[in-house]
Write the structure tokens for this entry.
Amino acid sequence: MARAAQHRAARAIAARGPAHPIALALGEDAAAATNKALDRGHPVHAIHPPRGIPRERTQPRHNAETA
């Protein structure tokens, strides 16, 4: 959710400029979504995976194998 909000804000800034009211509002939404994700304990690499590494390798496993 945070990543999608950041992409929307980036597209609005690229299309309309950083001072446009829509870009500012989307930037605020992106910041709020990112803060919520970090407060819930999601690591930064879950929001922005390192370049060159497939996204699925950075996500925690919910169905970890039991030995």
Observations:
- DSSP finds three helices and no strands in the chain.
